[in-house]
Amino acid sequence: MLDAKTIEIVQSTAPVLKEHSKPIGKRFYELLFSKAPDLYNLFNQTNQKRGIQQEALGYAVYAAGEHITNLEAIKPVIKRVTEKHRAIGVKPEQYPVVGETLLQAVKDVLGDAATDEIIEAWGKAYGYIADAFIDIEKNLYEETEHQPGGWEGYRSFNIDKKIKESDAVTSFYLKPTDGKPIASYHAGQYLTLKAEIPGEKYTHIRHYSLSDSPGKDYYRISVKREDAHGDAPSGIVSNYLHRQLQVGDTLQFSAPAGDFELDNTNLPVVLISGGIGITPLLSMLNTIIEKQPQRQVTFIHATSNSQTHAFKEHLQQIANDHQHIKSFVVYAAPTEADRTSGHFDKEGYMGLDFLQSIVPSKEANFYFCGPIPFMEAINEALSKWSVSKEHIHYEVFSPLAILGEK
Fold first, then answer.
1. Catalytic pick from 55, 83, 137, 395?
2. Nearest of 125, 147, 136 to residue 61 by alpha carbon
3. What is the spatial distance between Cα 42 and Cα 174, in angstroms, rounded to a whole number?
């Protein structure tokens, strides 16, 4: 356990780290990749270029310091991080170099304000937090490997089918190369891909939500091709999948992971997706149809227009076939053909008024996924509606861990 003086120093200086979280994160990664370039293989380089990973680290450090005496208070953050660590293969022996580098980054950014006493306290705190993470991850590794159809590390899968779902989204049906059974998963979880791309110096690791219900002899991921726009670079991995890989090609995946999971209750469900955020929610919807066909579901999907609307026909068919499922579509920029057809329910952006007009009751479990600004808007709307926090669930593609608490 940590002594009282260490706890006092860490909690009193945590706000300072929050204030300087971005430069500390930036300096940390500069130092880390110079000390241990192999760790570059574990990080999303596109997020590095956009500065997202750096901000995420700063947030995690601040949150852990603030709650050092009660890590249970940030259980959602810890669960999310440890699930991803297990998925990408973080090992106990990697923690010390990360800790040393983090302390050096704090010293470099804060200068004289980072006294020896402060650095020593944060060193002890980091060791305490790291031990907690390592213990949780050890159990996750064991559970994953020993579950039916489970495996350790990465496993080879063949692309069995490649189906275009919209102008930018393609589904990949994956079957294990060894022909043996595959692990089941909870609707909402993801697969983690380790891509060895010709011409790329480092391995690229990505998380992709599973987009179909569990219990099949295949996994399905549905990937949006990320093209360059503005200052944002094109997606290295998504373009590789879309443009270079074909049926029969092989990819490496770790076993399903993630903390975004469909509940087992009979409460009505509201599934709200933005863009490619539809993928985990589609898995949930397909699962409910198979397992709880009488459960009340409101499915709301927001996208630019019909050209970007993935799984449009599938969702229409489900709504037609199941009276307990209501489907609504929001187009931010409908085409003239969309306006003529009228196959959407709202133009622009969904707000609280729209949600209240189509959702029968706030006494439901709400699940949402999509771009960060979209999810922040949904989260704010649900908060204004006084929806219980226990009934609000979301997945984030970005490393920024908790909406509204960054």
1. 137
2. 125
3. 23
Among the listed residues 29, 59, 62, 95, the single catalytic one is 95
Q: 3-class DSSP state for residue 254?
A: strand
Give the range among 51-55, 80-84, 382-386 with minimum mean pLDDT: 51-55
Residue with tokens 């275009």: 164
Binding site listing for heme b: 85
The answer, yes or no, to whether residue 404 has pLDDT greater than 60, is no
Instruction: Give the strands of the sheet with 325-331, arranged side by side.
Output: 346-347, 325-331, 297-303, 269-274, 365-369, 392-395
Active site residue 137: yes
How many residues are present in the chain?
406
- Compute CA 350 distance to the chain's CA centroid, rounded to the nearest angstrom: 22
**Known binding positions:** 85, 190, 275-280
- Report the percent of the chain where pLDDT is more than 90: 74
Whole-number Cα distances in Å, 61 to 100, 125, 239, 244, 401: 14, 10, 33, 39, 12
Domains of the chain: 4-146 (1.10.490.10), 155-257 (2.40.30.10), 269-395 (3.40.50.80)
Task: Please state, in angstroms and as integers, the Cα–Cα distance from residue 342 to each residue in 322, 331, 337, 339, following that order.
Answer: 21, 11, 8, 5
Please provide the DSSP assignment of 82-131 as one string. Answer: HHHHHHHT--GGGHHHHHHHHHHHHHHHHGGGS-HHHHHHHHHHHHHHHH
**From CA 290, how far away is CA 318, in angstroms rounded?**
12
The whole-number average pLDDT for the span 290-297 is 96
- Which residues belong to the annotated binding site for NADP(+)? 275-280
Please report where in the chains the tokens 């993935």 appear, as a residue: 310
Q: Which amino acid, 220?
A: R
- 10-49 pLDDT tens trace: 999 998 888 888 888 889 888 988 888 887 777 666 655 5
Q: Is 145 a catalytic residue?
A: no
pLDDT, tens digit, 9 for 90 and up, residues 218-253: 999 999 999 888 777 888 999 999 999 999 999 999
Torsion of CA 12, 13, 14, 16, to 10 degrees: 130
